[in-house]
Amino acid sequence: MNDPANIFNFGAGPAMMPTFLEQLAEDIINYKTTGMSVAELSHRAKEYMEIFADTRDSFKELLNVPDDYEIIFTSGGASSEFGNIVRNLMSADDIAAYINTGYWSNMAFKTAKKFQDDGLVGLIADIDGLDKKNGLVSLRKISIEEFTPNPAYAHITANETIGGIQYQKFPDTGYVPLVADMSSELFTREFDVSDFGLVYACAQKNFGFAGFSVVIAKKKILEGVLPGTLDIENYAKLAENDSAINTPPTVAVYTAGLVADYIKKNGGVREMARQAEQRSRIIYEVIDNSNGFYKSPVHPDVRSKVNIPFILPEELKSEFEKEAADNGLLTLGGHRSIGGLRASMYVGMPIQGAEKLARFMVYFADKKK
Ligand code: PMP
């Protein structure tokens, strides 16, 4: 069998997990000597209520979440939140501004647009946030005047997982609440929650299992929902009910708590951000020093520290992927919508993974030149 210590998974999510799996394995069999699996615990049991509270408190501590914000855990991926955000933040005549920077911001926009098409909300504005600099994709500075008057919120995708574009500085939306999809970057950068009305992220990249998300929202903006919204989609109701209106994804909440403990023990978000910077620098240096053998389509000003798309001569792509996989460097294929290659490196990726990939890239380029 392959030794997991030599295997690095560069998949965009579900992604490589930090090294807490032994604890998880133990607790899946017998949680704290209860004789029961952590998966068997009732969501109303004292043990689970402690798990939930610990996970929520760890998120609050790590992300410095102010007291006037709710931390809500939801079932479903970030795609479910695309709709829930509209249900919770808009009313009948409201408008919302979506800044489009690639695949995922466009998916969020398209979901919101359905509510407009169904006559449930006013306008959903699609604002092009991209720019081109020297033939490379970049981000444009957005000014508040571009928003249709008084939107309920402005939505961004903080890091485009597929395009590999990341805001280095978030747009200043003034009085308009900024809503950010942080699915691929939560815990890998420092940011000030109070600059946002709401941030959300699915778990399968930086804090555990797919099918589970976190929403961090300013209490003040959670007043009222669109007619027809279910309680399980209602953020204020979820917050009131400890995110357990129905049976929550208990093992995912527990796993997120293990990841949060890992981050706490390993220097907090500041250290995770430093590691993301270091890992990505190692790979970008190889790309930039390869005399054009590898190319990044993204301008250096906005390159992502967690998802690095790159290309090499098309005819060598499958050989690269196969040989990389034979060497324990897995899931380097680009997203099916754009092809190429992509290295995703989240909280669970050790520096050694980036170093090993960099060595392989140099070796492969030298061999082919
Ligand atoms: N937003 C971003 C930025 C993503 O990367 C993804 C998943 N790759 C999603 C949303 C969708 O997440 P899910 O598949 O959990 O719905």
By secondary-structure content and strand pairing, the structural class works out as alpha/beta
How far the N terminus sits from the C terminus, by CA atoms, comes to 34 Å
Contiguous low-pLDDT stretches (5 residues minimum) are: none
CATH level-four homologous superfamily name of the largest domain: Type I PLP-dependent aspartate aminotransferase-like (Major domain)
Number of beta-strand segments = 15
Total discrete domains = 2
Largest sheet: 7 strands, mixed
Explain how this protein is built.
The protein has nine helices and 15 strands. With 369 residues, the chain is of the alpha/beta class. It has two domains: 25-264, 3-Layer(aba) Sandwich (Aspartate Aminotransferase, domain 2), CATH 3.40.640; 268-368, Aspartate Aminotransferase, domain 1, CATH 3.90.1150.10. Strand 3, helix 4 and strand 4 form a beta-alpha-beta unit. The mean pLDDT is 95. The structure holds 4'-deoxy-4'-aminopyridoxal-5'-phosphate. Residues 12-13, 77-79, 104, 157, 161, 181, 183-184, 202 line the site of 4'-deoxy-4'-aminopyridoxal-5'-phosphate.
